[in-house]
Amino acid sequence: MTKIRAEILISGAVQMVGFRSFTARHASALGLTGYVRNLNDGCVEVIVEGDEGRVDDLISLLREGPPMARVTDVKAIKRAYTGEFHRFDIKF
Could you read off the pLDDT of 7-22 as tens digits, one per residue? Predict the structure, then answer.
């Protein structure tokens, strides 16, 4: 399967609702690497690498988010795989 990188921006009520933990848990379970972090504008940024189908699975999960989140938009840009990550982390 083709490996890719995706740069994902999630907007809505997505901070202070467990979104980073939700993302890290699902990304790790899917065998993906990268990170998730909150941005100053209230959005959540996800940089993820792995098999394209699994990245797509994560993007689908991010459209829903954890129960307390209210996702209004998910923008994902797919790029070439770099292999720079060894695990999936939460950045603070």
Answer: 999 999 999 999 999 9
Q: What is the mean pLDDT of the chain?
A: 97
Residue 1 pLDDT: 79
What is the Cα–Cα distance from 43 to 9, expressed in whole angstroms? 7
CB atoms within 10 A of CB 78: 14
Backbone torsions φ then ψ of 91, nearest 5 degrees: -100, 140
Residues pairing with 48 in the sheet: 6, 34
Domain assignment present for 7: yes
Q: Is residue 91 a part of any domain in this protein?
A: no
Active site residues: 20, 38
CATH number at residue 70: 3.30.70.100
Structural domain boundaries, residue 63: 3-83
